[in-house]
Amino acid sequence: MFRKILTGSAMALLAGSAFAATDAPSGYTKCVQLGSTCAMSGTHQAAIGKSGVFAYATFTGSFACTLANFPGAPSNSSWCSYDPAASSASSSAASSVAASSVSSSKSSSSSSSVVSSSSSSVAASSVASSKSSSANASSVPSTSSRPQLSSTSAANNTIAKYLGSWDPTAGVGNVSSFTAKYTVAADGTGTHKTVQAAISAAVSNGGSSRIYIAVKAGTYREVVCVPAAAPPITLYSTTADASKTVIVYNNANPKPKSSGTAANPCSPNASATTYGTGGSTTFSAFSQGFQAKNLTFSNDYVEDTYSSSNQSAVALTAQGDQQLYENVRVLGNQDSLLTNTSAVGTVAHHYFKSSYVEGDTDFIFGRGTAVFDGCEIRYLTTRKSNGVILAPSTAASNSYGILIINSTLTQSGSASNSVSLGRAWDESVGSLSNYVNGTSPNGQAVIRDSALGGHIVKTAPWGASTVSRPFCSSNCTNSANRFYEYNNSGSGNGG
What we know:
Blueprint: E1 12-14, E2 33-34, E3 37-40, E4 43-50, E5 53-60, E6 63-68, E7 79-82, E8 90-91, E9 96-97, H1 120-126, H2 151-154, H3 159-163, E10 182-184, H4 195-205, E11 211-215, E12 218-221, E13 224-226, E14 233-236, E15 245-249, H5 276-279, E16 283-285, E17 291-293, E18 296-299, E19 316-318, E20 323-326, E21 329-331, E22 337-339, E23 349-353, E24 356-359, E25 361-366, E26 369-373, E27 376-380, E28 388-392, E29 402-405, E30 408-412, E31 420-422, E32 444-448, E33 451-452, E34 482-486
């Protein structure tokens, strides 16, 4: 039985011998299966949770726990549920929070920062998968209009599955340990006054060693491009409040290039007379291994300033492989965050940890493979109350698109039962007659172990694609749009 993760005398899950590759880190002890029970004595730092979702606590004394095969795990796995009634052990507060998954439950507004917590209460409040397991481990039944993953399928839709051999879950690291090669300060007290100048210096420096660039608190109104040829860069602010260090501009898809600043050079469209979606991006990162921490990426274009049916105004484009974003804020309205790949058929992995993304129309979109872990996804109701959150254009050859896990879906305003979780973006398809089954993009997204606000449509939260193709709800393959939920909670969870 999957129980709530709590401290003190409450029940908790102790990881057994299964999933050793992703179990507790060095220095932590796992409960060892002895027949049908787990038994330990002494003082142990133990992993509490499930594979990839851990907090840590110290247990003292002798204790036993009964075997509980975790749904979807191999039949010989041993997950043990600590029962204080049958044990003499006591548990302390969680000593740390797993970098891979458990992060603070936040109540951020569009202007607030997102800061991780390390208290034991985090484990209880942020792991939304703290409900009893059933066939679908969900508080709502699986229907054709609101499909839920089975526990077996959920085991194939985890952080590790989406990110493959790359494991970024430890995060960017402690900024106090970084040695900045370049420092950005608008007042001239750093090596460069603009973020782009420091990025360009890192590119000129070359090499394969990681280059750290510190950005002092302030507002940097500029368009920034991290080209594919850049070495691995960590761009960060030493100020933990991400709202204090802002990179912002206001280009948009319909904005004429004649209005001034050129399109983002990472994604030019020389023949176009307007910026276009990619060219509207405030900050584009095309290089492999790019990292960002404690920063805000914003596009403050005011929609309908320029007439068009497409008011795209991208704040951040993540395109290079193995990119990590921790405690960042992505602010916009339509198409705020583009998770992309270098070309159709290629794969790029992006991991967002303890971050905040806001918008009102398809505001997380693209063909990248992106994980949002412990994040707040906030819907803005100012323009419309019936928009769409996700718009993946996952390649038909890619089984994994967008994963939102251990997160909260919130709103600014009072929309009720009106906002869609997502729809597939049929990128470059044009019309349904141009769609070729199995080769055109097929959006894939899973939202699991998360808390959904009341703004989410309850009975049918997933929509048809941008060329009106329906999504698949059972026995799906990569040649169909695939949208699922698992183990979610909150007033937007249906029922």
